[in-house]
Amino acid sequence: MPTPANGQHLAERLEELYRRHLLAGEEGVASYYESGRGYYKPELAAEERDRFSICIVRTRGDVYQTGDHDRPFALQSISKVFVYGLALADHGRDYVLEHVGVEPSGDAFNSIVFDERNNRPHNPMVNAGALVTTELVRGKDPVERFERLLDSLRIYAGNESLAIDEETFEAEMRTADRNRATAYLMRSNGMIPGDVESILALYLRQCSVQVTCRDLAVMAATLANGGVNPMTGERALPLHHVREVLSVMHTCGMYDAAGQWAFDVGVPAKSGVSGGIMAVVPGKGGIAVFSPGLDAYGNSVRGIRVCREISERLGLHVFATEAEDALLGPI
Ligand code: DON
């Protein structure tokens, strides 16, 4: 049985975990990702190879961080979680459900597949679903919609200076053919109304918002804390929507590796191709890992290894017994 956690214990464990995983080899890395450069093979990776950070923020507000925790990276698909929350807050659960489902697709994040029975994307964590939830964000024009979206991200992170990385945004726009095709097809099927180009730009803007590993862990801790940022006390999401967001993260957040993740790690999570993973331990805290080496599913290889180990060693799995649960308990 793990020993109960205290702050010093946790900081030491994190440091040890960081050092060990920093040295781990590249097996399982199918590609690296860098803004402006896109995906490239492991043998071409330069300094990205060693970029690595881990951060844990407990719901009572204490922070544990190691590695490059202040290095910014784009949220990419992790933004889908928060924008889904905003769509739920703007329209309510039933309306959002009519337009985007909550079933895992079992397909890659950028697959052009839909829930044909219900004429909607499978879930808001894949690109097709995220295009819908982005479209649902209220605002009189694209500028206001993006401002609302960015404000919401800032409240989750407790960081007023979150902003877009223009280089990432431009690179995303240059390489958006697949998302564009998905969006046009959805419009022709009646899944999204409105101007495809402006929805696409809004979606890629949200993907291009930069965070640090620490920001991401605070965002995760906000979800773990019932939607209230544990550092600022500000509410980011009404409580009744937090459960809906976490449920979809749990079943769909890691794309077509979501089942394996639920089996191994057992907490709601979301990844992005920039190499970030955010995991939420409800009532206890948030975990964020950043490392840009990706597996064939587009998930961070080190991120998965680290989260799996933290979960195993500290009894975080949703089906762990109380006796196994040592790290993030309310002590
Ligand atoms: O839509 C895209 O292609 C990217 N901008 C975001 C993809 C992403 O992060 C998926 N993650 N694993």
How does this structure look, described?
- By secondary structure, the chain is an alpha+beta fold.
- The chain has twelve helices and ten strands.
- Strands 4-3-9-8-7 form a five-stranded antiparallel sheet.
- A hairpin with a 4-residue loop joins strand 7 and strand 8.
- The structure holds 6-diazenyl-5-OXO-L-norleucine (DON).
- 6-diazenyl-5-OXO-L-norleucine is lined by residues 76-77, 109-110, 127, 172, 179, 207, 271-273, 298.
- 6-diazenyl-5-OXO-L-norleucine binds next to loops.
What's the tally of helices?
Answer: 12
- Percentage of residues in DSSP E strands: 5-15%
Report, as a whole number of angstroms, the end-to-end distance: 17 Å
* Main structural class: alpha+beta
Walk me through the topology.
Blueprint: H1 7-23, E1 31-34, E2 38-40, E3 53-58, E4 63-67, E5 73-74, H2 79-91, H3 93-99, H4 127-136, H5 142-157, H6 166-174, H7 177-188, H8 196-207, E6 210-211, H9 213-224, H10 239-252, H11 258-264, E7 269-271, E8 276-281, E9 285-290, E10 293-294, H12 301-314
Antiparallel strand pairs: 1-2, 1-10, 3-4, 3-9, 5-6, 7-8, 8-9
The site of 6-diazenyl-5-OXO-L-norleucine has 12 residues, from loops.
